[in-house]
Amino acid sequence: MSRFVGRLIRKKYIDLSTVSETKLARCLSTFDLTALGIGSTLGAGIYVVAGQVAKQSAGPSVVLAFFVAAVASVLAGLCYAEFGARVPKTGSAYVYSYVTVGELWAFIIGWNLILEYVIGTASVARAWSAYFDSIIDYKISTYLNSTVHMDVAWLSSYPDFFAFAITILLSIILAIGVKESSTFNNIFTGVNLLVVTYVVICGMFKADFHNWNIPKNEIPNGTDPKYPTGDGGFFPFGFSGMMSGAATCFYAFVGFDAIATTGEEVRNPQKAIPISIVISLLACFLAYFGVSAVLTLMVPYYILDPNAPLPEVFKRVGWGFAKYVVSVGAVCGLSTSLLGAMFPLPRVIYAMASDGLLFRFLARVNERFKTPLIATLISGLFAGTMAMLFDLKELVDMMSIGTLLAYTLVAICVLILRYEPPDPNQKFDDVTHEEDHNGVQNIVSDYGDEYVPAADPSCCSPLTKCFNPPEKAPTEQTAHLVKICVVVISLVAPSLSAVLIFAEHEVSSMTVWAIVLVTVFALILVFSLAIIVRQPQCKTKIPFKVPFLPFLPFISIFVNTYLMLKLSSQTWIRFAIWMVLGMLIYFCYGIWHSNIETERPPSKLRNGHFNQEDVDENTPGDAIVASQQSKDTERTSLIKN
């Protein structure tokens, strides 16, 4: 049992001296990454989601819904940025968690990232096909509905062969090479940004602030129950409606983490990844805020077209020619969004297969194109099939829950890693190496000359050690205390979110016990945060760190769990089925074929680590096996002689 648990929590160690080694081509600049982040994010949210949320959930407060979703994404983006600086390797949150919290959680995050990117690709391909179909007066859907109609509740009404073809074509483009794909993305992203700028500037000339505060008596009674008209004002559907809209708007910001999957294809990843994540998220928020503002200022929210709001809005104000400009931007925006959704998918699969957690043949890199060719084509085929068969709304909800869980776990990993003590076996950034005048490497502590050893813990009471620890640098004891507090936060934050969501819908019947629960949960969170704040942090020198730790990761955890609980129960059921399938793959294949399992003797594993006496601290992890085999060969030769 001890060895089995050790397998679940064993960690991947990365040596800084070998971190730049990769089979992939390093050809992307900071500009390329920023364009990839904007292109991945700025797509369906502008041309579809803004109108849907304004009409169905939030009204004019859609601008605040985008703000809440942007805050959640920025907080997650800062956590991704720190890990991108720490671990500039392909695999995004999967690699980050493998280094930090162990193999099982790494597989769970990687499996959820695959879900996010597959469904993201399928949903954008479906949206691209639907938008193109609307331009040609729905000739594609009319023909397919009449010839190959499917009458299945959980499938689309017709197989979308056009969406399938788009996905396969883009898979081929991605398989040819990263630089070629990046050039395609840069051009289309530039056109998309020009169209968004055109929409915002032109829309301001037709803005009417009365549309943000329409009295209830001026609103016609809605005849379609699917599209209620609300009560008017800036919050026609209340605060709860705005927050539900924020959960949907979160879909519009999904895609920036594509940047974090390019760690082995960037020229200077430790600086380029943090900078491009922050810039792309800021640019996307400004675009979403501007477009949603002019949409709801130009016409009343309840007459918006939920499927293609921008062309209809300009037509109503007498600018019908703008439809063609918007259509060009929509085609470019959805194309780059599709590329951004598909780009990281084969790279996450490649990273997991390289570590042995998925089937090994998926990690093969084509010698000519320097891309994971098999993983790219298989993932494109899978995503294309889902785009062809499944309904768009079902795909979007499934993607949101997997993404939010990945963001939550990344924030948890940041909290844990920042308070970890230096590991003598981990050669990745806990210590720095400097050479003296003779060229001899000296290991220099990150704590500098002012490092003070831990005081005698027997002189302090347990409560005093929690809030005023004698240690001046992280130790195993302080790290263990932080982990306990993080576990408490991870359990209490969703509980508090659930009570708050219940209170939103049942304000009149909110009883004393609900108020007591909110108070108790809030006090537990404050107490846990207070303990974490008092613990010493690791002073590792990296290009970027999350500011205001532990508060920003905590807010990210709370907001993400809150938005997850706003999703429907059907979404959670489908997510549970996906997770069961993933656990079957991991326990039947991954746990036994992991690189750590196959390349290092299991007898030396204790709680996921190697015995200190069995590992030369100057030996990289992959060289341990060769060293051990050499010793065994010498021992056998001596016995024979």
Quickly describe the structure.
InterPro entries: AA/rel_permease1, Cat_AA_permease, CAT_C. The protein has 641 residues and is mostly helical.
Q: Which regions are unreliable across 5 or more consecutive residues at pLDDT < 50?
A: 425-455, 601-641
Shape: globular
Helix coverage percent: 55-70%
Largest sheet: 2 strands, antiparallel
Specify Rg, calculated over alpha carbons.
26 Å
Q: Termini distance? A: 40 Å
- Strand content is under 5%
Whole-number mean pLDDT: 77
Could you say which structural class the secondary elements and strand pairing correspond to?
mainly alpha
Question: What oligomeric arrangement do these chains adopt?
Answer: single chain
Number of helices: 23
Encode the helix/strand succession as letters.
HHHHHHHHHHHHHHHHEEHHHHHHEEH
Number of strands: 4
Write up this protein:
It is found in: Cell membrane. Belongs to the amino acid-polyamine-organocation (APC) superfamily. Cationic amino acid transporter (CAT) (TC 2.A.3.3) family. By secondary structure, the chain is mostly helical. 63% of the residues lie in helices and 2% in strands. A hairpin with a 5-residue loop joins β1 (431-435) and β2. The longest helix has 33 residues, at 103-135. Mean pLDDT is 77; it is low at 425-455 and 601-641.
Can you tag this structure with a few keywords?
two-stranded antiparallel ribbon; transport; CAT_C; 641 residues; Cat_AA_permease; globular; L-arginine transmembrane transporter activity; mainly alpha
